Amino acid sequence: MTMVRQTRQRQAVIEVLRASREHPDAAWIHGRVRQVLPQVSLGTVYRTLDALVRDGLVVTIERAGQATRYDYKHEGHDHHHAVCRGCGAIFDVEAADIPALPPSALPAGFQVTDVRLEFMGLCPQCGNTSAGTSQPD
Length: 137
Ligand SMILES: [Zn+2]
Ligand SMILES: [Zn+2]
Hints:
By secondary structure, this protein is an alpha+beta fold. The protein has helices spanning 2-19, 26-36, 42-54, 124-130; strands at residues 58-61, 69-72, 79-84, 90-94, 118-121.
């Protein structure tokens, strides 16, 4: 019984993440999952997300002082992220556009299974406002 319930929860979380390109946090995912499985707690959603991350189906985007965001790893569409320091917007960056890193700096025998890059900066909107001259000294 427990197995069946866990599988349904897992499936529901996957469906929510699959349908979203918003890089939601756990609370947002919880709200969506509850539309299908009203009894699911936020703690269960966290545990399910942890398991999905361990299994390599979901990636996290973590920023200091803010809720961890989650993203479904679409098969064959591996991508990296660009995060705006101003508004927190997260943009997808196609992995195919990023050259493979030379593994020379890695410990000998280290096997790379996954490469994750995060580009930090300012999105066009935030870049414009902070560089603007509209604010008097
Ligand atoms: Zn921004
Ligand atoms: Zn993404």
